[in-house]
Amino acid sequence: MQVTSRKFKENAHDAMQDENLRAALGRVKQGFTTARANAAAELPEFEDLRDQSRDIKDHVLENLDYYLEYFERKVIEAGGHVHWCSTAKEARDTILKICRDVDAKTVTKGKSMITEEIGLNKFLESQGVEPIETDLGEYIIQLADEPPSHIIGPAVHKTKEQVTELFHEHHQQYGYTEREEDAEKLVGEARAVLRHKYVTADVGITGANFLVAETGSTAIVTNEGNGDLTQSLAKTHIAVASIEKVIPTLEDVSTVMRVLARSATGQEMSVYTTFSTGPKRSDDIDGPENFHVVLLDGGRSEMIGTELQELLRCIRCGACMNHCPVYHAVGGHSYGWVYPGPIGAALNPQMVGIEEARHLPNASSFCGRCEEVCPVRIPLPKILRFWREKAFEQQIGPKPERWGIEIWGFFAKRPWIYRLMTKAAVRVLKLMSGKKGKIRSLPFNNGWTAVRDLPAPQGATFMEQWKKREGK
Amino acid sequence: MSKPLENVEVALFVTCLVDINRPSVGFAAVKLLEEAGCRVVVPDAQTCCGQPAYNSGDRSSTKDIAKNVIRAFKGYRYVVAPSGSCAGMIKKHYPELFADDPDILLEAEELAARTHELVSFLNDIADFEPDDVKLDKKITYHDSCSSLREMKVKQQPRDLLGEVDDLELIEAEDREACCGFGGTFCIKYSEISEEMVDQKISNLLATKADIVTAGDLGCLMNIAGRLSRKGHKMKVLHIAEILAGMGDKPGIGEGQS
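Above: the input entities. Below: the structure tokens describing the complete assembly.
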């Protein structure tokens, strides 16, 4: 997808004017946060499970090569194929080749952020293969020709009325000529349209929440069951996943799953949890004839052993964005690349470059709620700060901001000059405020007074007054 | 009743905002600490904890400033700041800052162990309760992010406010959500910050409280500044001022007259 992170401020400005989006984000804020809080409160061992999940993921990252090769061996034993792809391009080409080998015309897709990351849909379309999203949210944004704005609720920014219009526009060809306004009936309409697509698709592509090393299985969790139909009805199933999704055992999957849905939607479990192990065996009643796993590195192996390694623990639950006041204000599209919210702000600079994405780690008040709710305890604020330091080192960002900090730093390191400066500053500000106790505009740096009054200093500084009191 | 900290030396980390903008918070802190029996000293060589530089990515300036603070506060039994944010900087972030500098790390960790946020220090360590303080007002308390999440200050301010005679505490919706201050964030991303502070003040106003309070002056200046810009009359005070019996003095951003 086109990266627009550089224009974060403009994106955010536009987003905050969009009343539909504001209404939608209000629902994210209320719904997801309450649900997660309740789910966490109902499980006494929830905090322990977070620790265990963190430790499992850390163990994997310390032994990534071992578990990936183990996984590959097991996939092959089960009759499947594993394709190792360093880059997005390699992954796209690999997927296209598999599609071409079975002469695929249409491809159904379960929800997958990795296929967003590699821009698969546009690519397949350009090569004459039609991708059809089957997750309802993904289907809606595919019709709208938009990227997802949330990693688990891709169409969370859309209102019901907008969906009515989209379906009306795109479903007339299937005989749905009336505008449908009832939510349940809209779902029914999408379901009926998609049912047909599952059966006729040549290839089904899904993501994977887990790649289970001990069995060579890929696992997905969904609430709609669309993933199951996608991967079992087409003759060829391609699971696309990034390398850090590997996990040692089914037991480990069970542990992480106990925090995944609770953190994401507040459910104890998602409605469907599906494991795929190899193609259809002779005594299976259904399943795909071919089973492929496309493993994407996409810059992740470079993060191992660096300050960014902990980001690879992410299980893509979306809790960080659900609880982020900046995400609540600006929505997912403002971030300008695939991953929004705190995880995007921490990850995207690595993926698209800090120069392009410098706003993302800066646009945070460091409130810390993301880290507070992250099921695998990723220290997101710390990683955002890491990027700020990188940007500062490389002199990326507006010069005046930098000078401001440097000038202030000069004084802060020298207490007695600092004392003189603050003494003077306080008098000037006090004078400017008159008797009102506040200043409505400043001749410089108006980011503060653009939206709020500046409370004026009371008078002499504390240090001055303290000295007097102590009789020094 | 004996006071656990009778005559114990406590160094006050004034914080740059209190020093410049609202010295009355510093004097309220001194009064409270003295009432708790402490002997308060204010080290001369202090300026700021270094957060503006730290959060702007200027690690090298931050380290220099942190070294100043470590030097200035050497040897005191306790270091107390009327701010969760500045105390959190010293307690949580100084050790991280010098993680690869073993000589200073030891001192940073030692300072971190002695450093406390004012309200939790008064409640948990000094065993303090406001005595004979009265304020016949409805109050709502904003949980500042650093106090709440870095310093685990949650129940202590509520307990202490509960000891003020006639004071009624009314809890606001989303009281644990950020007010949009975030240091330089509120200047660099003022439009997003505006959205956040508007959410905050609408929740605060819904309580119909007379006064909003918190333990961090940065948040309070942000909230007061936005309330004032929008023409709302809710009074804004630092919790130290309320506990020290200064609740009837002009609020943040009000004229002294």
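Note for the figure: The beta strands of chain B are 9-12, 39-41, 78-81, 115-117, 138-141, 168-169, 211-214, 235-238.
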